[in-house]
Amino acid sequence: MHVRRWICAFLFATSVSAGERMTVSVCTRGSLGQKLVTGAEAAAAALFRRVDIEILWTKCEIGLEGDEASRQHWFTLRLRDGKPFVPADPAALDTLGETFLSLDEPGYIVDVYYQVVETLATTQRVEPASLLGCVIAHELGHLLLGPGHTPRGVMRANWNLGDLKAIRQGCLRFGPAEGARMRRALQGTGDPTAP
Question: What is the pLDDT, as a whole number, of residue 85?
């Protein structure tokens, strides 16, 4: 009886921890409330959990940089209480956030602009923490998938009214192929940018 319980507990623990993991250091620039940030982290984590990736959130600290940050899956998220320097279409995700990628080395830093997120959330009646979490997930997705977008889901270039409705309902997702590519990137196997 005790052996059966131990085996079940072991199998449960193994299945819970079977996914890939990454660490995200959250640096808040401006006056964003902790409740908002925690809600956004929970929304982003839920999107990644659906594709079997866990996020360990840490407070802003000087962490790893460059290739070492990418190898260790240690990313920096800068939540900025402002707007990007170059305005674009209000629903375009390059207005809401940006990922710093280069041809020379893998990226490890993303910026998200809360003032733009808040404006879009207000005009489209979306919970700000949910929208912020989706934007964070999109930008972190670029660190694992590289540049480029998909025709639907979290990694679209522009979210339309249907996508914003999906965010309100908690239905916006990464596609299965994106999940597999991100897990490969975290495992360090294969080319994560390959379909």
Answer: 60
